[in-house]
Known about the structure:
Blueprint: E1 5-8, H1 10-14, H2 24-37, E2 41-46, H3 59-65, E3 73-78, H4 81-90, E4 94-100, H5 103-110, H6 114-130, E5 134-140, H7 153-166, E6 171-176, H8 183-196, E7 202-206, H9 213-222, E8 227-230, H10 250-259, H11 268-282, H12 290-293
Parallel strand pairs: 1-2, 1-8, 2-3, 3-4, 4-5, 5-6, 6-7, 7-8
Amino acid sequence: MDTVQLIEVGPRDGLQxxxxxxxxxxxxELIVRAVDAGVRRVEAVSFVNPKRVPxxxxxxxxxxxxxxxxxxxxxxxxxxxxxLDRAVAAGVDEVxxxxxxxxxxxxxxxxxxxxxxxxxxxxxxxxxxxxxxASTVTIATAFGCPFSGEVESAWIGKIIDQLVSAAPPDEIAxxxxxxxxxxxxxxxxxxxxxxxxPGIPQRWHFHNTRNTGYANALTALDTGAxxxxxSIGGFGGCPFAPAxxxxxxxxxxxxxxxxxxxxxxxxxxxxxxxxxxxxxRLEKAVPALLGRAGGFPAPGTD
Length: 302
């Protein structure tokens, strides 16, 4: 593929596991920096209970303050009907509903069984469509679970089949929630999605916990990925997943895509600057590498 959508998830996944809480104004600035860099789909907020994930408080205030543009789509993460109601009222452009593929993680993350999660996602997709809002269903722990261990790709195929048979979403996302995946699994999961959800665009969400995230992203591109999630600076993680470190970094992924001739329309230097700004606000070193090494060739060289 010579084009792919870069979906910026830093304002949501990048912040949800951080100890330092950003203000609404700081969250808005992060989103504005991503949009100014050329990102056109931003996972901006999460409509979860702020008592469980305080980093995600203020979702309505954030969406009320971000610049609205015809060419920019703001995504809200929802887990249940209450989340969808809040998202619709706040004016999201898209919703991303999560189905966890394993029982223990589903109970810890969403307080429901896998079957209940699938049923809730089907209802949310239907209701979002009725409200004129696009929907993505993300299948979490698609590559492996911190509690249940290995997850078979055929099981993910069965989950996709149940979802698509009842209420096809606009997009299917496969998530390596804890960063255990390898390229062979990407190819196997892509084949399952092709079989059970033909014609539905595939989106991929990788963490770099074991340094395989970028290889997985490039493999997903080879299998026909329509969109890749990434987080400015490589911040991120899941508060309910032990030892899950950050997402693949938007700027590091963009370097690999740019050098491979894959267009995203996003400015790499602007993302590096945004990552440095975010690191300052979080009072942490930036995990991404591009800000340290710089692009290649360096500006002004042959």
